[in-house]
Amino acid sequence: MRAKVLPSNATVPPAAFSALDLFPFSTWCEPGDCILPCIAKFGFVPYAAAILTLFYTAAALITFAKRHGITWSEQSFSSVWDVAWHVPNIFMCVPTSLSSLQTSWRLLGQSDFERFGPLNTVADLEVTECCIWFGTYLALDMILMTIHRFGSRETLFHHAIFTFICAVMFRGCTAPFVGSTLLAQEASTPFLNLFLLGRGFLGLAVRQRPPPSAPFRRRLSPDPPSVARPSRPRSRHGPSWSSACLPSASSRCASGSTPQ
Fold this sequence. Notes:
Distance between the termini: 100 Å
Structural class: mainly alpha
Helix content: 55-70%
Number of helices: 12
Number of strands: 0
Radius of gyration: 32 Å
Largest sheet: none
């Protein structure tokens, strides 16, 4: 459990378990500090150390596995660094997303002022710490991609957009419900990264099947133009040969008799 020293004038709701208690370290943010003051006090250091440790440990293990014949598809990853990039958030996103989801659920029953007003840095300390983690992740991610030359332009563009969002929210230190809801969406990141790693190393040996929406697309698509078949002229003295060879007239067709 995290040990925090509260200010003497701080009012804290009844103690409850937070997903951030799963972290093996205690962050450096004190209750009462907003996001930017906590960053100025080096509150990002534990998160930076955790991300870098996971990244370079994964890179070392992947390099060792590559030397022993365990490789990946070049269509999935460009280098060892690209593979290791997927590892840190498999672990880091679990406690941060769960604690953000917990805060969002609690704020649903609060007033609009508590949801969209100033951040309560005592009751919602988890939001402060999760925002600092996310800002640290964005900064380190862009540094690592620049140093080791991996990543795509789409990823850099994604990080640039969220860096702007972080700058707006960190400076105002408001709207905890918005911040916690956005961070709770990181709950899907571990599953996405595990899928990408599995596809890169194991491939997808799955038979291709039409998607479930194929019948609907087929139903909505226009039918191909039918080709008119030439019909035989109808006899004026009786039914044509084709009409005579119906199931009821099979005996006559088998005997080779023609209709009169």
